[in-house]
Specification:
Helix content is 39%, strand content 7%. By secondary structure, the chain is mainly α.
């Protein structure tokens, strides 16, 4: 399907030519122009339907965004509070072990930690592991 731009007056004239059973401008114009429908089983919607794909937001994404919101570095307590605030405002879950999940994500995604998974090196322990302060790792920093 192609899209064309027409004035409001032309649009109104097209719809003024509508006969019973015609559901779209395309159907009206097909009849008026004598164009045979090559896709008779296809619905003729004037506006394409947009497929919305929701990407699942992961805990590590929340932790990273929280650190960004906190200026790139913060104490664990500040990170916990920011992630909680973000998840609540977005209507996402806050399990009882939220703090442990946040700590896990910091360590899984930091080459400073023994638990580092080796995938994303997003975070760094500012005062070493156990120091209680984390920051976003600058690209190529190490």
């Amino acid at each position: 399907m192609r899209t064309i731009e027409i004035s409001t007056d032309v649009f109104a004239k097209i719809w003024a030519q509508r006969t019973n059973g015609e559901e779209s401008e395309n159907q009206i114009l097909q009849r008026l122009l004598g164009v045979q429908d090559t896709h008779p089983t296809k619905l003729h919607n004037t506006r394409p339907k947009l497929l919305k794909v929701k990407r699942k937001i992961l805990w590590r994404d929340d932790v990273r965004q929280a650190l960004e919101m906190l200026g790139g570095a913060a104490s664990l307590r500040e990170i916990y509070a920011e992630v909680r605030k973000m998840r609540l405002s977005a209507g996402r879950s806050l399990p009882l072990n939220t703090d442990a999940i946040i700590s896990r994500e910091l360590e899984y995604n930091s080459s400073d930690a023994r638990e580092f998974t080796g995938s994303r090196d997003w975070f760094r322990a500012v005062e070493g592991i156990g120091g209680g302060k984390w920051a976003l790792r600058v690209e190529n920093e190490k």
